[in-house]
Amino acid sequence: MLFGGTTWQDALDALGLKRYCCRRMLLSHVDLIEKLLNYAPLEK
Predict the structure, then answer these.
(1) What is the residue-wise DSSP string for 20-44?
(2) Which GO terms describe its cellular component (predicted)?
(3) CA angle 39, 34, 43 (to 5 degrees)
């Protein structure tokens, strides 16, 4: 799908993501775990 000329709409349909709420979760995901780990409290 990535290099086959498939549109993002068709790719999300193929994954079974039909509802707009599920589609937005995938499209707007930002990986923040690395940034959040910088602020994790230290164990004492």
Answers:
(1) HHHHHHHHT----HHHHHTTPPPP-
(2) DNA-directed RNA polymerase complex
(3) 40
Residues 16 and 23: their CA atoms lie apart, in Å, by: 10
Tokens for 7?
């549109």
Domain regions of the chain by residue span:
8-38
Per-residue pLDDT tens over the stretch 1-44: 767 888 889 989 999 999 999 999 888 888 888 888 888 776 66
Q: Which long-range contacts (CB under 8 A, 24 or more apart) does 38-42 make?
A: none
- The type of residue at 38 is N
Predicted TM-score (pTM) of the model is: 0.56
